[in-house]
Design brief:
Chain B: This is Histidine-containing phosphotransfer protein. The complex is a heterodimer of chains A (about 750) and B (about 150). Chain A is of the alpha/beta class. In chain A, strand 17, helix 16 and strand 18 form a beta-alpha-beta unit. With about 150 residues, chain B is an all-alpha fold. Chain B has a domain of about 100 residues: Up-down Bundle (Four Helix Bundle (Hemerythrin (Met), subunit A)). Chain B is built from six helices and no strands. Classes of the chains: A alpha/beta (about 750), B mainly alpha (about 150). Chains A and B meet through helix 13 of A and helix 2, helix 3 and helix 4 of B.
Chain lengths: ~750, ~150
């Protein structure tokens, strides 16, 4: 045998087995070559495959395996050494790669498995999110429904519309079969079916309020599922067939106005609730879901608010109507009262006249009769007639006075009068009666009492007379003392009259008069009654003394009109009593006695006023106009002093000068300054001379300046005699009623 | 000339003064102030006016002659003159003074000088007239008559 490089297979080739091996190897190779191709193809197709290099490795491994098996095909028969070498190389390579791959797979496979886990996880997550999305969507739906419902409910202020709308909308949103509202009755013991969705006219169906199921619903603010068989849910007659749907009930708080405090939230501790019952359609097997219950609760709250708004509105409308009615009634009452007053006044006026006329006749004729020749009995009779008719006349006057005083139509007649004279007159009037009763009357006038005062002389005298008269009337023996003085501030405040705050001022003073008698006195409990009309004390002694009981009431009215106060003190029965009153009187300016009776009466006859002897001061820089002014004043009768400068003027001016006439339009010399200084110099207004400006300027500025510095008048130069006369007489006259002097602009 | 004639002449003369605007109602007022206790009131006042005015006019001339005219002072003087003239009823003098014052405010020297001239002119005119009037009155009084009171329908 020749030696060849061929390798002999280990065992002799069996024909059949060899054939099968040959074929299998071939197919294996084929498969092994196609697998990577497939892999590459599919991987290329898929976008994501992270392990490319694994693929390469795997591909290499398979290719080599295939190659190995392919090359194996040649080793079945005699093959050359090259084939054997190639075979060996291939096998070696395959071994290497497959080991590497095996090692690699140890790492790879767990990764690949975990991918699967992650995929599962993500799938779960997605499912969960889907679920949540569904929930949110449902919630949003619910929210939308609620908003829409709220809008519907709140868009009206009418209670019925609100409730109807609620039921309708709820029914629509939730697809309800029936929806009903039970309201508490007025008594609060029952619930009455007030509104339903489907049934048009709910019968006045009532249910007692204290059922356990109702209490259950009322005690919770949530929507509560209740049994369809409970009375509130049984709204239609039961028919055997149907399976009623689920029923839910919720409470609707009925908020009262009083629940709303200003700074608080309303407390829901109100006792009153209405009940809203909602029924799902029967036979539908639908269930109440959580979000639907929430919807129902929210709606119930909104309804409560809307109802309370409606209630507030109703309340305010009612209040307004009530007010209007009241106004009308009040108006009517006022008009009736006015008519009544007018009627009474008319009556009084007529009666006044009608009553006085016969009285006058009686008194006049009786007094005339007295003058004639009469027998003693006749004289006595006539005297009695006269006395009685005088009394009657006084009564009539009193009654008429009081009624006039009451409706405030009485006004004081202010005027200047001699105060001391009033007292002396009263004394003179009372002396005869007092001397008959052998009473001693003394009058004590304080030295600081002004001689003249401004007030209502007649009524003051009436008051004093009344008080003194009462003193005389109720005193059987002893003495009467009358004291009058000017009240000082401390003594003005009396504990008896705490609300009396007299404020003496420059122009007024308070006259205090005390009348003390040693008569029968008054018991302390009777004192308050003294000033009431027609009330008499019960003792027979006073009854017999006569009088209508009106005197003190009238006095009190007069005293009040004079801004004063009157009261009576007594230590008890039999201990005498003191009547005290204070009145406010005006102080007249100090002036010539001769003027006094004249001034208040002179109205506007200027020509009559005489200025003789009145001192005036003329200040003018211009010699000519000074002389002219002097001439005017001298002609009118004044006593004129002339100065030509402001210093001289201030130096010379005194309280003796009644008027200061000054030229104010001279530039450089400030007439206004002088006016101010004169004001400062004479603080008491009744000492200060009147200041009159003479000016050639008619403009407003000058007038305003004059007003500002307190001038009493402005005269435009050149001034005529008549003008001067009228201006000065006006000013001097009005001085007496000073208190509020207006600028008399007596220019042209 | 007998009294009646003189009186008539006086009345006519006075009327003419009023017509021509030399005097106004204020002069009548002055005449009314004259009575037994004050027989020469009008003459006294008018004399005072003449003296015052002479002085004022001199002051005014001097004031306007200055290189730096002090208009305030000028105004003060004119004001005085105006016051005096209106007090006795010298209407034309017063009007001239008013115009003068306006130019003083404007500080217009030429116009002021012109006004001064005018015032002086008016003043001398009225002085002349019044002096004539008083002479007539004196003549009447000397002849034993009485001064007729003016009844003017003014």
């Amino acid at each position: 045998m020749e030696s060849c490089n061929c390798i002999e297979p280990q065992w002799p080739a069996d024909e059949l087995l060899m054939k099968y091996q040959y074929i299998s190897d071939f197919f294996i190779a084929l498969a092994y070559f196609s697998i990577p191709l497939e892999l590459i193809y599919f991987v290329k197709k898929s976008a994501v495959f992270p392990y490319r290099w694994v693929l390469v490795q795997f591909g290499a491994f398979i290719v080599l395996c295939g190659a190995t098996h392919l090359i194996n095909l040649w080793t079945f028969t005699m093959h050359s050494r090259t084939v054997a070498v190639v075979m060996t190389t291939a096998k070696v390579l395959t071994a290497v790669v497959s080991c590497a791959t095996a090692l690699m797979l140890v790492h790879i496979i767990p990764d690949l498995l975990s991918v699967k886990t992650r995929e599962l996880f993500l799938k779960n997550k997605a499912a969960e999110l889907d679920r949540e999305m569904g929930l949110i969507r449902t919630q949003e739906e619910t929210g939308r429904h609620v908003r829409m419902l709220t809008h519907e409910i709140r868009s009206t202020l009418d209670r019925h519309t609100i409730l109807k709308t609620t039921l309708v909308e709820l029914g629509r949103t939730l697809g309800l079969e029936e929806c009903a509202l039970w309201m508490p009755t007025r008594t609060g013991l029952e619930l009455q079916l007030s509104y339903t969705l489907r049934q048009q006219n709910p019968v006045g169906y009532t249910v007692p309020i204290h059922l356990p199921v109702i209490n259950q619903v009322f005690s919770s603010s949530r929507a509560v599922k209740i049994s369809p068989n409970c009375p509130v849910a049984r709204l239609r007659p039961l028919s055997g067939k149907y399976v009623p749907g689920e029923v839910v009930a919720v409470r609707v708080p009925l908020l009262h106005l009083s629940n709303f405090q200003i700074n608080d939230w309303p407390e829901l501790s109100t006792k009153r609730y209405a009940l809203m019952v909602l029924m799902l359609p029967s036979d539908s097997a639908r269930q109440w879901h959580g979000h639907q219950l929430e919807l129902v609760e929210v709606v119930a709250d909104q309804v409560a608010v809307a109802l309370s708004h409606a209630a507030i509105l109703e309340e305010s409308m009612r209040a307004r109507d009530l007010l209007m009615d009241q106004n009308v009634a009040l108006d009517l009452a006022r008009r009736e009262a006015e008519t009544a007053i007018r009627a009474r006044n008319d009556f009084l006026a007529v009666m006044n006249h009608e009553m006085r006329t016969p009285m006058h006749a009686i008194i006049a004729l009786s007094s005339l009769l007295q003058e004639t020749e009469l027998t003693p009995e006749q004289r006595l009779m006539v005297e009695t007639i006269l006395k009685s008719s005088n009394l009657l006349a006084t009564l009539i006057n009193d009654v008429l006075d009081v009624s006039r005083l009451e409706d405030g139509s009485l006004q004081l007649d202010l005027g200047i009068f001699n105060l001391c004279a009033v007292f002396r007159e009263v004394l003179n009037l009372i002396k005869p009666i007092a001397s008959v009763k052998k009473l001693h009357v003394s009058l004590n006038l304080a030295p600081d009492l002004p001689e003249y005062a401004i007030g209502d002389e007649k009524r003051l005298m009436q008051t004093i007379l009344n008080v003194v008269g009462n003193a005389v009337k109720f005193t059987k023996e002893g003495s009467i003392s009358i004291t009058a003085f000017v009240a000082k501030s401390e003594s003005l405040r009396d504990s008896r009259a705490p609300e009396f705050f007299p404020v003496p001022s420059d122009n007024h003073f308070y006259l205090r008069v005390q009348v003390k008698d040693s008569g029968s006195g008054i018991s302390t409990q009777d004192i308050p009654k003294l000033f009431t009309k027609f009330a008499q004390t019960q003792s027979t002694a006073t009854r017999n003394s006569g009088g209508s009981g009106l005197g003190l009431a009238i006095c009190k009215r007069f005293v009040n009109l004079m801004e004063g106060h009157i009261w009576i003190e007594s230590e008890g029965l039999g201990k005498g009593c003191t009547a005290i009153f204070t009145v406010k009187l005006g102080i007249p300016e100090r002036l010539n006695e001769s003027k006094l009776p004249l001034m208040p009466k002179v109205s506007s006859n200027h020509g009559q006023t005489s200025f003789s002897g009145l001192k005036v001061l003329v200040m003018d820089e211009n010699g000519v106009s000074r002389m002219v002014t002097k001439g005017l004043l001298v002609h009118l009768g004044f006593e004129v002093t002339m100065v030509s400068s402001s210093d001289e003027c201030l130096h010379v001016v005194s309280h003796e000068h009644k008027v200061v006439l000054m030229d104010v339009c001279v530039p450089g010399m400030d007439g206004y300054e002088i006016a101010v200084q004169i004001h400062e110099k004479f603080t008491k207004s009744h000492e200060r001379p009147l200041i009159v400006a003479l000016t050639g300027n008619t403009d407003k500025v000058t007038k305003e300046n004059c007003m500002r510095v307190g001038m009493d008048g402005v005269i435009l130069k050149p001034v005529s005699l008549d003008k001067m006369r009228s201006v000065l007489s006006d000013l001097l006259e009005h001085r007496f009623f000073r208190g509020h002097i207006e600028m008399k602009n007596i220019g042209d | 000339m007998e009294v009646g004639q003189m009186q008539r002449r006086l009345v006519d003369y006075t009327k003419s003064l009023f017509m021509e605007g030399f005097l106004d109602g204020q002069f009548l007022q002055l005449q009314q102030l004259q009575d037994e206790s004050n027989p020469d009131f009008v003459v006294e006042v008018v004399s005072l006016f003449f003296d015052d005015s002479e002085k004022l006019l001199n002051d005014l001339t001097m004031a306007l002659d200055q290189p730096n005219v002090d208009f305030k002072k000028v105004d003060a003087h004119v004001h005085q003159l105006k016051g005096s003239s209106s007090s006795i009823g010298a209407q034309r003098v017063k009007n001239a003074c008013i115009a003068f014052r306006n130019f003083c405010e404007e500080q217009n020297i030429e116009a002021c000088l012109r006004c001064l001239q005018q015032v002086k002119q008016e003043y001398y005119l009225v002085k002349n007239k019044l002096e004539t009037l008083f002479r007539l009155e004196q003549q009447i009084v000397a002849a034993g008559g009485s001064i007729p009171l003016m009844e003017m329908g003014l």
